[in-house]
Each structure stands twice: as C-alpha cells, then as structure tokens.
Write a structure and sequence with these properties.
This is Acyl dehydratase. The protein contains 3 helices and 5 strands. With about 140 residues, it is an alpha+beta fold. It has one domain: Hotdog Thioesterase (Thiol Ester Dehydrase, Chain A, Roll), CATH 3.10.129. It is elongated.
C-alpha cells in the first residue's frame, strides 16, 4: 500500500459470529453476558449479542497494520464507540493515512479509521499509528 497522506486503507470486512464473540470475551476476560448470551442480551433490550468495544480496537489495529505492510509495528491505537454492533451484522473497517513522518530509521504512519455496519451506521471511529521500518 502507498503510505502517503490521503491514501486509503484496504478495507477489512468482518461479520462477527456468536462463537467468535464468545471466544473474544473469553480471551479478553470480558464476562458481561450481553457479549455471548443471546437470551440475556435480548432481556437487556438488544436484538442479539453485542460486539465488544475492544473488538473494534483490535480490528482498527489490524486495518492499520495491514495497510502499512510487512514489518510494520503498532505504536498506538485509540477508538470511540459510536453505535452498538451485533452478531451477524457485517462490519467494514476502513481508513486513510493522515500523516507520515520520517523517524530516521523508518516512517511513522498515522491513520484515521472507521468501523461501519452494513446499513451505513458508523459503529466506531479511531486513530492509529504504526512504525514502518526502512526497507
């Protein structure tokens, strides 16, 4: 990918399944039942189990690293959830390069990122910074 300001990140499409959300809750020690128990999520007023906030952050990190290419190292990722995402609803994670600076032995690349549901709802927005070593 071209890592110049304005360059678009290749989007990542991901549809969270019930099993994936259960497993993500397990590995992140998130025991809130709305993330893996459909009956409980519905009792709380949700139509299905809820995608974890931290899953958006993980997908933002993946989007930035994928865009930056081999050898890139994540330095920072930040995000804010804007709307609730649910199991079975396709999500697209995308972004743009906002800044590139030379650090002497590589480049620091900054991204603006968004996670969008299939209906166009922006579920999360964020930023990330990766270091790309000199080739």
């Amino acid at each position: 990918m071209e890592t110049e300001p304005g360059a678009a990140c290749p989007p990542i499409e991901y549809t969270p399944t019930h099993l994936a959300l259960f497993r993500f809750s397990a590995v992140t020690w998130n025991s809130h039942r709305i993330h893996y128990d459909q009956a409980h999520a519905r009792a709380e007023g949700f139509p299905d189990v809820v995608v974890q906030s931290t899953l958006h952050g993980e997908m933002f990190a993946r989007t930035a690293l994928n865009a930056a290419g081999p050898g890139a190292v994540l330095r920072r990722v930040e995000w804010r959830n804007r709307a609730t995402a649910f199991a079975g609803v396709p999500l697209t994670f995308s972004g743009r390069v906002t800044a590139v600076t030379d650090d002497g032995d590589g480049r620091l690349v900054e991204f603006d990122l968004a996670g969008t549901a299939a209906d166009g709802t922006v579920c999360a927005t964020g930023t990330a910074e990766v270091r790309v070593p000199s080739r």
